[in-house]
Amino acid sequence: MATQADLVTVLQSEVERLQQYLAALPADAWTKPSACALWEVRDVVAHMNGVGSGYRERITRGLRGDTSPDAGFPAPHLFATLSGEERRQRGTAFAQRPIALREHLGHDLVSAFSHACDPFPPFVAALSTHDWHQPCYHSCGLIPVHAVAHAGLFELVIHGWDIRAALEPSTPLAPDTLPALLDFYTACPHWFFLRAAKLSAPLRYRFAFADAPSRPWDIVVEGDHAQIGPATDGTSADATFACEVETFVLMMGGRMGFDAALSDKRLIPTGAMAVVQEFKQWFQGV
Question: Disulfide-capable partner of 8 in 92, 109, 125, 258 (CB 3.0 to 4.6 Å)?
């Protein structure tokens, strides 16, 4: 588990990387489709602007004891009850917000990005140990401050990838972001888990990371919920996937399809194939 200081360092680096990348984009790149459905590159940048400012506001409100929904946003408990189709419909409706924000911000999106995101790393750095665990509102459920901070990094990294991947196919994620993104998946498994019929017995999926010095990570589906985290010593898995951390991050984030990862040998399974194939009914990206 990364420390608060580790997260702040990665956040600062990612904000700076994005600023440099966006500042160098040619004019015609901004209106190209991104790898995030329904958004052009400029819309993705507008969304990241909203993350930088909106997540600071949510944390500030949470520290005051206010966990009520943002204006125009749903109650936090609803997300876990949505079907896959309902989540897609909600995503389509939410996609209009960054477009409207981009139209409001105008053409100087790089300066707007810096104004919104530059304060985020020092804001996170100034949080106390007590602050770190206070509950905050998020449309995907009430989560602690540290999860909101990790969610901010997740949004910047994944949406930064959405821009780069559309303009530069096969672009990788920055290696220094990967440990913190794994921590985010541990803190917010409900973002990525789609409820189905309750299991009568738990299923354990193990991810053996070829490029990580740490122990493998497990996803345990039990009843109608899931847990994600480092594997427990001596516990056997029902199915194991060999892959790189980046493959896991992109697949769980909905940027790489499960079947495509299998086909490309970026995800190599062992175990009963029926259990392997069941994985995609619960995890379809976010």
Answer: 125
